[in-house]
């Protein structure tokens, strides 16, 4: 369904951004779930600079 397509799109976008960062592009921002102590949640969605 649409949730599966949304997850596939998000994954593909993240991988394409990682590839851009690996080739040397800069200023690439994507969100990712990372360990966080800001809230009681163990992981939180945070903007990440990849390149």
Description:
By secondary structure, this protein is α+β, with helices and mostly antiparallel strands. The chain has one domain (4-50). 41% of the residues lie in helices and 27% in strands. The chain has one helix at residues 2-22, and strands at 29-35, 43-49. Strands 1-2 form a two-stranded antiparallel sheet. The protein is flat and about 35 Å long. Keywords: NAD, Oxidoreductase. InterPro entries: Lactate/malate_DH_C (IPR022383), Lactate_DH/Glyco_Ohase_4_C (IPR015955). This is Malate dehydrogenase, mitochondrial.
- The tally of beta strands, per DSSP, is 2
- In total, how many domains does the architecture comprise? 1
From the N-terminal CA to the C-terminal CA, the straight-line distance is: 32 Å
Oligomer: single chain
Fraction of residues in H or I helices = 40-55%
In round numbers, the mean pLDDT is 95
How are the elements arranged and paired?
Elements: H1 2-22, E1 29-35, E2 43-49
Antiparallel strand pairs: 1-2
């Amino acid at each position: 369904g649409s949730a599966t397509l949304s997850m596939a799109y998000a994954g593909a976008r993240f991988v394409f951004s990682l590839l851009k960062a690996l080739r040397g592009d800069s200023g690439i921002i994507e969100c990712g779930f990372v360990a966080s102590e800001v809230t009681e949640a163990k992981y939180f969605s945070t903007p990440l600079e990849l390149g």
